[in-house]
Every structure is written in C-alpha cells, then in structure tokens.
Amino acid sequence: MNSGKIVLTINFITLILIIILGIYEIRTIERDTISFMENLNDVKKSVEASNWDNAYKNIELLNKNWERKKQLWSFFVNHNEIDNISMYLKQSIEYIKHRDNIEAMASLAILEHYLTHISEIEKLRIENII
Question: What is the band of 36 on the pLDDT scale with cuts at 50, 70, 90?
C-alpha cells in the first residue's frame, strides 16, 4: 500500500470519528438539557407556589444532576458557559434557601436562559457551522 492510500485512509477514519463524536455531543447535550429543564420547571413551580421545601429538594436534585454531567459538558461547551450555569445554580439555591421569591425567580430565569442557549448553539444548523 502506498503512502497516499495510507494518508487517505487515516483522513477518512478521522472524519468518521469526528462525525460520530459530533453526533454523540449533540445528543448528549440535548438529552441532558431536557432533563435539566424538567427539574428547573419543577423548581419554578414550587417557588411560584411558595412551596420552599419542595423547591429546595428539586433544586438540590438539579444541582446533583448538573455536578454529575458538567465534567462531560466541559469537553464540548465553552467553560464560561459552564461557569455561568454553576454560578446561577448556586445563587438560585441560596435564594431558595432564604425563601426570596423574586430573586429566586430571576436567578432561575437566567439559569434557564443559559441552559437553553447552550442547547441551541450546539445544534447542527447552518448558522452554527458558519
């Protein structure tokens, strides 16, 4: 086998691996975001109803899920985005702990924005490729 065929084969295998990794990344982020948003919606409903014990239980569940997944996300997502989610999640926990309805809802809204924003920028669309 000549060196041209070897280079072509290596390039083809590399391209296939990049495509597979890209599909895995998109699916993982979409699946995780759906799970995070379900938790976040439960938290928001509890805060709106002033059910602070349930809100705290749900935000802790969201935090536990986030801590488990953020290492994987850090391979694919800008670290500033990861830090912003972590920061607003911690802030939301504190507002809920202190039963501050207005600040908790504001912080949760920002957290929701960051989670949906990451999901949108990671999707395979022409705007994200160019």
Answer: very high
Let me know how long the chain is.
130
- φ/ψ region of 50 (left if φ > 0, alpha if ψ in -120 to 50, else beta) reads left
Q: How many domains does the chain have?
A: 1
pLDDT at residue number 78: 84
User: Token pair for residue 111?
Assistant: 């957290």
- Domain span holding position 99: 3-129
Asked if residue 76 lies in contact with residue 29, where contact means CB atoms within 8 angstroms, the answer is: yes
In degrees rounded to 5, what are phi and psi of residue 67? -60, -35
Alpha helices in 74-100 (DSSP H): 79-97
Q: What is the pTM of this model?
A: 0.81
Q: Give the single-character DSSP code of 74.
A: T
Mean pLDDT, range 115-127, rounded to an integer: 73
Query: Which CATH number covers residue 27?
Result: 1.20.120.660
Q: How many C-beta neighbours within 10 Å does residue 79 have?
A: 9
Higher local confidence (pLDDT), 129 or 4:
4
Retrieve residue 47's tokens: 């805060």
